[in-house]
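Hi Prof. W.,

I finally got the ABC transporter domain-containing protein prediction working! I wasn't sure whether to trim anything, so I left the full sequence exactly as given:
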Amino acid sequence: MGLEKCADTMVGDAMRRGISGGEKKRLTTGEMIIGPSKAFFLDEISTGLDSSTTFQIISCLQQLAEVLQYTVLVSLLQLAPETYELFDDVILMAEGKIVYHGPRNSILSFFESCGFKCPRRKGAADFLQEVLSKKDQEQFWSLGHEKYNFVTVDQFYQRFREYHVGQNLSMELLKPYEISKVNNSALSFSIYSLSKCDLLKACFAREHLLMKRNAFIYITKAVQVGLVATMTGTVFLRTHMLIDRTHANSFLSSQFYSLLFLLVNGFPEMVMTLNRLPIFYKQRDCLFYPAWAFAIPAFVLKIPVSLVESIAWTSISYYLIGYTPEASRFFRQLLVLFLHHSTALSMFRCVASFCQTIPIASIGGILLFLIILVCGGFIIPRTLFPNWLKWIFWVSPMSYGEISLAGNEFLTQRWQKVMVSGVTLGNRVLMDRGLDFSSLFYWISVGALAVFIAVFNIGFAVGLTMRRSSGTSQSLISHDKLTAMQGKDQVNSKEMVRESPMLPKTTLNTPTMTGKILPFTPLAVSFRDVNYYIDTPMAMREQGYTESKLQLLHNITGAFQPGVLSVLMGVTGAGKTTLLDVLAGRKTGGVIEGAIRIGGYPKVQETFARISGYCEQTDVHSPQITVWESVVYSSRLRLPMEIDSKTRNDFVKEVLETIELDDVRDSLVGLPGANGLSTEQRKRLTIAVELVSNPCIIFLDEPTSGLDARAAAIVMRAVKNIAGTGRTVACTIHQPSIEIFEAFDQLMLMKRGGELIYAGPLGNNSCQVIQYFQAIPGVPKIKDDYNPSTWMLEVTSKSMEEQLGINFAAIYRESSTYKDNDEMVKQLSVPSPGTRDLHFKAQFPQKFMDQFKACLLKQFLSHWRTPSYNLVRIVFTALSCLMFGALYWQKGNINNINNQQGLFTTLGCIYCTTLYAGIQNCQSVMPFVGVERTVMYRERFAGMYSPWAYSFAQLAMEIPFVLVQLLIFMLVAYPMIGFAWAITKVLWFSYSMFCTLLYFVYLGMMIVSLTPNMQVATILASACYTVLNLMSGFIMPGPQVPEWWIWLYRITPMSWTLNLLFTTQFVYGDNKNIMVFGEIKSISEFAKDYFGFHHALVPKAAVMMAVFPVLFGLAFAFSISKLNFQRR
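And this is what came out:
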């Protein structure tokens, strides 16, 4: 597979550069070939590979079929003639019908019998795909004495059935299989290749490896646990904790917070599991291993993680807080916290296995978390649950944590002081909270937590087993569009020919589409002695590589000229994409050396982005936008403001027609491999988005990868047309057909290691390239009608260098071709007389407000079409409002508050409804912003808009949906809880709730903008939830916060939220007296003394509530503007 060089390289993803696209494709193929399988079905395995590598892989498959009698079925795109000839049989399909199925050497004869003949220098595979196209078929008509009429797929299908190959096939299929030929090797007597023990070993080894690779995440979590434990211990410091009824609430609060923190600490496990599910589904469906073999290591290897984090938490916080100083009590608390943490990890893994996607899992995880928390016995004491809901207390893992920890502390000797009522102090505290159980319940709780762990892990395995992959790739079009397409197919052949936008004899070398020529300035790109270095990977250092830097490009000198179509070629891993990234300014790391000039002037990235387009190898687009909207969006932001909307739309239409995307213009783009456009359509959209910006310089990185021969010809015809208008066009390309290869004017050929071995013209029929390499002693001559690009890669391979004992790079540097190239670079590096350096009046093509409007429209469409984000969070809001309304039925009515416990419960209601609705907003917005951020990086590199315009549009788009959430809360939860309907109280509550929901959304957006990926974002978010919980004023009231932490309390948004909500609801205009710890006090007096809530703070709190959304929003915008976590 040629993967030995990158064997120790990370695969990578859209955010982290890893192996090349071709290497990923070979990795997928290799993953399937290794094993005992006797039948292989391989889909487009050559995408992203050079023709030489494809030939080697297919040769390997041919040997497996012939020598080992394997059954191999392969679908390929852009098949080179020499690779095509390796196959024995061919299945040709079109419109869901088999046009031909039989021996390869008979297929051309079949089409000749139909009147179509393959031209001399045309690859058979290319001919077979184009002859079925109504736009290309006529050029192959060979019966000149007869009038050509378009032959439909149905007609070909009928003729094949009458052809002798088709008749033989039908006869073979009618014959029953002979029992005597049955071979046991066709049967499998076990589902999996390995024994159960070996399957477990393999899965354990991989899980351990992945945990090592994610060591940063686990170390970060452990450090976070230590820091939060220290903060918690110093907040509830033992010197402030007395053994009395008042401070007993603080002990209970600290225990509740310990359970809460370790529960929240499980959220990152959900995200990490979700990120691994696509790979799991692929391997599970290929019967690599069963779901239980994946689930068991995921649980067992997380036990040490739970143990370490539980030990860290208990060791730091236990004696700082001042729990009973007995070793047995310490270890009993450690055991409970360890089991609770394991329960949390297991629960979130289970949620991930059933929800499958990050948006749905975030909502599902938050909802389950909220139910467990509210029903745990602290926020609402067990005795205050409605009678019809008392059962729910016993199905919450949090309840058993509360029972065991409370009993572990309050049943000790120091809490056995007898009160006036004859009940001990410890029992009185437990009775107030509904936790008055015997010491035996500690062990019952431990057993219950163990059962929860088992249930969640069994659920995890069941979810992995039962659930299917979340989606399949397909483009969606309207019924009207489908009807129009079907109607078009039913017109007669003459009309079809007339309607074709291309002339029948069109070739790549004869561009016919003139198009709308928008004004531009032709500019050349020249570069001299370009070198690129990266830090040497650790794996290479371990293997003995001593240099601190690894050089990927070696003194590359060349130029791309206006009106000249240049191609950059080389074997996979030669550095083609790296060179384009360097020239385009897309590299985010490493060291670049050398001179790059645009039109003879030194390149300035800001202006270069305005006049250039770059089609990346990975197709990154907003998933919820249609094809038309994506292209219009690009044109609206990248074309000069002087161009009117009609001209712009006409230009967009022509681009879509040129790239042949007009039939799917109304289709949603979707997510790669999940839904939306196919790989081919997505690639063409990437090109269209760049072409519509009317660049004078355009770089295309493998624009034909993933396309069949006809689609590749369409794309390259469009690219050729663009170069014909005087633009500078450079492409990297793999396995081009002869026709595509010879459409280029200039060639830059690189060998593995990043060295240039040829830079110059191709010549007619590639004559100059052929002459250059054939002049080197020992290089084999090219065969007649052989693809020059394939021959060129074969004769310059590393094995050929070793065989001949030469260095093609050294030979090139001594050649006259090198001198001609060097002279051309010198000429193009000097500005032409009368020219001046690029300069624009503004940094961006459009004004800031126009950028904002365009981004806002796109964000609106994305939000509206993402029900997994907005609809789900609105449904969650409605469900949580109903839940809170049921649990806190009329508990917010001041007439129902008669003692401190009623007041605590009411404050707990406000605390829950605001904090966890906010956390849900924060958690659900993060994956949405994460997906859009990847698209934003591409658009920002292209200079489409100011990051501030993009950020403000994304911030503004959240406001209407937050208002919908607020409306639901005010109509459902507000009256059910029993809050007052006085106009001032309603307005204050609405204002406070709106600001709270909004700053939580902006907090989530800010966290994503500050972190490189969702795993780290989730960890940082859980740390923020920790502070928001601890310093909210509910778990530890403000007046009781130690002076060294009071600053954190005052800058915590939730403390101001509770202050404003509670004060405006219960202190303004009300002065009811209640029983508080054995004495009568007014609510306002108790709120001021115990919680620090006072009506004098209302104006300040109102201002602070407006400050936090603004602060988080500006931090998000600043981070989007300044930070880039892509690694290229």
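The longest strand covers residues 549-560. Does that look reasonable to you?

Thanks,
D.
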